[in-house]
Predict the 3D structure of the following.
Amino acid sequence: MKKKAKAPEAPKMKGKEYEEELKKLQVELCHLQEWVKATGARIILLFEGRDAAGKGGIIKAISERVSPRVFKVVALPAPTDREKTQIYMQRYIRHFPAAGEILVLDRSWYNRAGVEHVMKYCTKEQHRRFLELCPQMEKWVIESGIILIKTWLEVGMEEQEKRFKARIEDPLRQWKLSPMDLESFSRWYDYSKARDMMLDATDSKHAPWYILRSNDKKRARLNGIAHILSQVPYKKIKHPKVKLPKRSFKKKYDDTASLDGRKFIPERF
């Protein structure tokens, strides 16, 4: 029997506790990174959800302490005229991971199930075909050896409104607002229906959706990262202890005096 959608929410997490727990998880992400490099594993972390659900926040928490050469974050813009004539999945597949890489998708091919469907950027037939074929495509991805982890961030109506108002008032967040965001805000139930159709069609045994409650951003980031780590059979890779070599002073000279007269940035702070 499926669990009920609603559950009592814990009080919002304090900053100090969050930072302590996040550091522990980021250490594990570094261990995951080393395992991926050592084994040649390929992973796709896919994040979807409404606007202001917290996708960018969890992706930043994942990527800020690891190598961008391993954790490759991709947030594709709207398709170009050329891309519109390609096979729908083509512009996503070109970013798929090679051995030793993790692709982190801030939105994905599921745009067709969400914004494209709601805003009528695709036809009803294109939407239907996507929902029909997507599980088959994802099975092919998994059978090719890629680990695919799909996360849907679920934010409530009141919390989304609170975040949109914060974006309007805060100059550091205004860049996050777009006409599309405002349109999505006014079409809450259209997006809810699109979400339900998507989950019904693509929540498969081989590529299940995991729903992450995200009204509390801090708890959502921690829960989401912990879940991802639980889905990958990584192990801590042992490395020989690093020891700094001795510096050579054979060619010693005053290498600070040689900078005299150069243009230095003013030290204002």
Remarks:
- The first strand starts at residue 42 and ends at 49.
- The mean pLDDT is 94.
- Residues 139 and 206 are 7 Å apart (CA to CA).
